[in-house]
Amino acid sequence: MAAHVVAVSRSAAHTFSKPNEPSIRLLAGIGVEGDVHAGATVKHKSRVARDATQPNLRQVHLIHGELHDDLLDKGFAVRPGDIGENVTTRDVDLLGLPTGARLHLGETAVVEITGLRTPCQQNNVFLDGLLAQLIGRDDDGNVVRRAGVMAIVLAAGEVRSGDEIRVELPPLPHVPLEPV
User: What pairs with residue 7 in β-bridges?
Assistant: First the structure.
């Protein structure tokens, strides 16, 4: 099956989980219409406290549905939207994409991947032990973040469950994702 959207979610308040919606509207340069993290400048509380004028590189949070499968296999029942993502995907290697990769979601929406999401302690409040499943180390001791990617919106559009996803890679050389 082609890469596709599994679910879309948003929340108007600073809540850990985001309820699923039939569709969400992405607004260019802003994010998800009606979502607390939408805006041209940072909206995450910790980033606002540091410098509220920073550009918002975290307008849209995407998680690969395969992460939910893996977590379930390990005893963590996590569903789309539960850990704050706006878009849950399937059959896209989000964590393997380079910085600047573009995802065409549905008919018109386009997001550009800005970096990795760094999971926080709130994951353990949601489900005890979840944080250790989302961040770890590889065989060389490097930190591995598995909590999805962040993006900005380049082109507006409606996104819904079942929409096809098309990946557009940036020109070479590719730059690996870093936390944003």
Answer: 88
Residue among 33, 12, 14, 15 nearest 23 (CA): 33
The 10s digit of each residue's pLDDT in 8-19 is 999 999 999 999
Q: Phi first, then psi: what are they for 78, rounded to 5°?
A: -115, 130
For 105-150, what is each residue's pLDDT tens digit? 999 999 999 999 999 899 999 999 999 999 989 999 999 999 999 9
**Strand pairing category for 31-32 and 23-27:** antiparallel
Give the predicted TM-score (pTM) of the model: 0.96
Q: Measured between alpha carbons, how far is 62 from 175 in angstroms, rounded to an integer?
A: 19
Homologous superfamily of the 4-168 domain (CATH): PK beta-barrel domain-like (2.40.33.20)
38: closest CA among 10, 57, 8, 59? Answer: 59
